[in-house]
Backbone:
């Protein structure tokens, strides 16, 4: 963040005409702001706690690996669809560009505070508010005197800039921020709630988890209302996945799996969560009438792929690509010594045929398949494509 702070002091700014939009969508979203967990984390957790090891990123976007997959996430396909660049993580201060949005998602995060990540949804919203406030402050300080800097495709103040200041601008030429007007025109996406339920499966009975769902959703409700108060008007909200179908959940399970190889009771809890989430979204839609809310049924999209994997060109959904459960659990990209034998969590040679990458997260190929089913609006309420998900 040093470059951003330095540019604030110098008074750097851009005009709205500098925004580059490759999108032909009717909403013409200039930016995306995403909130979530590892399903949409494009570098937050790696920036905060250390980079993921190879072979993460082996298929795409892997130098260095910043996603818990072999390649792209559903969020990446969203940005592609809207003609926007891939989102940089808010926590990543190296070579970042926030001109077209920022990603506040962090692997392990939940809606409520939890034991996996400190960056729960409330913290992500606070980070967004700080980002918006500092960006607005920057433009306010820079609006009185601007001209185009020859080495930077943006407008910068030229009065009283020292040689040090010009040098800083050159060094920070890759760091850019959105125009303040873009915050109200942007798309706000959510993919979160999985870790709230996953932690519950290890610490609570099913009845206790179900009882806790309204309180979890209170946190989601508060986050959306806070963003609305900051001017957000377009919301694209994913429900939670069929958690019982994740190999990490299903393979260690001692009971009987359903016809799709899933733990039925965990999927039942996920469906209950999703039903209550949909009711909350409907309530928000009624109360915040100036906004557009699109509820996206990711659960059904993923379950349809899992239940029809062979016909869709994939192998058994429980055969994840990277890591191992046999003879013992080894994380993707890691290794351990067992009885004088080294056991490595290597990757398979055919991730394009696998649904699960590491037992928890989906592959680039699976995410591509799912994105193709949701972005046209056929699995949304209301049934509008993402390019029309604005008021």
Residues:
């Amino acid at each position: 963040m040093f470059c951003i702070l330095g540019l604030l002091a110098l008074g750097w700014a851009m005009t709205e005409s500098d925004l580059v939009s490759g999108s032909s969508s009717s909403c013409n979203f200039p930016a995306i702001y995403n909130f979530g967990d590892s399903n949409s984390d494009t570098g937050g957790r790696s920036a905060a706690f250390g980079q993921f090891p190879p072979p993460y990123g082996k298929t795409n976007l892997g130098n260095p690996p910043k996603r818990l997959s072999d390649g792209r996430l559903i969020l990446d396909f969203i940005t592609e669809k809207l003609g926007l660049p891939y989102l940089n993580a808010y926590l990543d201060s190296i070579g970042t560009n926030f001109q077209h949005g920022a990603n506040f998602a962090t692997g392990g995060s939940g809606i409520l505070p939890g034991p996996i990540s400190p960056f729960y949804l409330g913290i992500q919203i606070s980070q967004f508010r700080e980002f918006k406030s500092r960006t607005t402050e920057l433009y306010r300080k820079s609006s009185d005197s601007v001209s185009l800097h020859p080495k930077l495709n943006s407008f910068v103040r030229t009065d009283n800039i020292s040689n040090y200041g010009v040098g800083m601008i050159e060094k920070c030429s890759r760091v850019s921020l959105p125009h303040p007007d873009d915050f109200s025109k942007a798309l706000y996406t959510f993919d979160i709630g999985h870790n709230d339920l996953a932690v519950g499966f290890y610490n609570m009975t099913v009845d206790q988890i179900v009882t806790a769902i309204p309180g979890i959703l209170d946190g989601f409700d508060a986050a959306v209302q806070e963003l609305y108060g900051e001017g957000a008007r377009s919301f694209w909200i994913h429900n939670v996945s069929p958690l019982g179908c994740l190999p990490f959940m299903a393979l260690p399970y001692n009971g009987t799996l359903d016809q799709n190889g899933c733990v039925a009771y965990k999927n039942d809890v996920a469906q209950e969560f999703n039903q209550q989430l949909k009711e909350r979204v409907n309530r928000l839609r009624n109360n915040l009438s100036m906004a557009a809310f699109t509820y996206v049924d990711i659960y059904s999209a993923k379950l349809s792929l899992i239940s029809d994997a062979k016909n869709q060109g994939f192998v058994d959904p429980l055969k994840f690509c990277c890591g191992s459960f046999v003879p013992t659990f080894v994380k993707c990209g890691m290794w351990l010594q067992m009885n004088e034998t080294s056991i490595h969590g290597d990757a398979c040679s055919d991730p394009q045929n696998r649904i699960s990458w590491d037992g928890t997260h989906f592959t680039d190929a699976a995410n591509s398949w799912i994105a193709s089913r949701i972005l046209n609006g056929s699995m949304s309420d209301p049934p509008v494509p993402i390019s029309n998900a604005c008021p």
User: Anything to note?
Assistant: The beta strands are 32-36, 101-103, 147-148, 155-156, 187-191, 234-238, 292-296, 335-338, 341-344, 380-381. The chain has twelve helices and ten strands. The radius of gyration is 22 Å. Residues 206-229 form the longest helix (24 residues).
